Amino acid sequence: MTTELAKGKTLDEAEKISRENVAQELEGLPQVKMHCSNLAVDALREAIRDYRSKQGLSE
C-alpha cells in the first residue's frame, strides 16, 4: 500500500506519507498487523533520505 501511495509523487510528497495514511487506505488493520505498515512507511522515508544523500541533495 505504501508503494501505491508513493507512485507518481515527488520525493517531498512521498516523504509526507504517514503511518496513518496507510492505515486509512487499508481501512484499518488489526493492531497486531499494524507494525507491518509502519515498517513500510519507515523504510520509504529511509530510502528517500539515502537517495538524497547519495545524490548530494539537501533534505
Question: In words, what does this structure look like?
Answer:
By secondary structure, this protein is mostly helical. It is elongated. It contains 4 helices and no strands. The model has no long low-confidence stretch (mean pLDDT 90). The protein has one domain (2-55): Alpha-Beta Complex (Sufe protein. Chain: A).
List the helices and strands and how they pair.
Layout (H helix, E strand, L loop, with lengths): L1 H5 L4 H5 L3 H7 L8 H22 L4
Descriptive terms for the model:
59 residues, mainly alpha, Sufe protein. Chain: A, 66% helix, elongated
Short note summarizing the structure:
This protein has helices spanning 2-6, 11-15, 19-25, 34-55.
Shape: elongated
Range of helix content: 55-70%
Approximate strand percentage: under 5%
Q: Which regions are unreliable across 5 or more consecutive residues at pLDDT < 50?
A: none
Gap between N and C termini: 24 Å
- Tell me the count of domains: 1
The count of DSSP E runs of length 2 or more, i.e. the number of strands, is 0
Provide the residue-averaged pLDDT: 90
Structural class: mainly alpha
* CATH C-level name: Alpha Beta
CATH topology: Sufe protein. Chain: A
Tell me about the largest β-sheet.
none
